Amino acid sequence: MLQVRGGVTVAITLAAPHGAPLTEASPVWQNLLAALKSSGGPHVAVTLLSQQPSTFRVGLKVKRDPAYEADVVLAAVEAALRSHFSFDARDLAQPVQQSDVIATAQAVPGVVAVDLTRLYGGTRPAQQTVASLQVRLLASRMRVETGVAMSSELLTLDPAPFDLLEEMA
Asked: Distance between alpha carbon 30 and the CA centroid of its chain, in Å?
């Protein structure tokens, strides 16, 4: 429930499979809204909002066990991070913790140590969006701005190459 310009409203953030955008024209949107309105009270306003997709970036150095090949370990670290921070693995408004990034990389077979050098992104606060090493990245929750309901942010790992992914010297 949010207090918006028109009064109290039930607001729901929607996210389609694999992050596909949902719009007011989509059958899922239209059918859900119709079902909610027909099942709800006549004086209860309902608003649907599409999730706010947002990405973050990482950079890291990895120390590997000499029994493992460097290319194999680095590829496995990237795959583990991409899986752990993918759309299907994340929740709306879920922050990204530095410790979670490190633990995910550290769990890869052959990894001895991880030096996280970059963690930044999302949309707010502004200081977390510039290239830097943040302790955590916040993801916006559903909220009201200037009387309008705003959707929750879904923070996933940027599909572009990492800022840095190399073996520690």
From this structure: 25
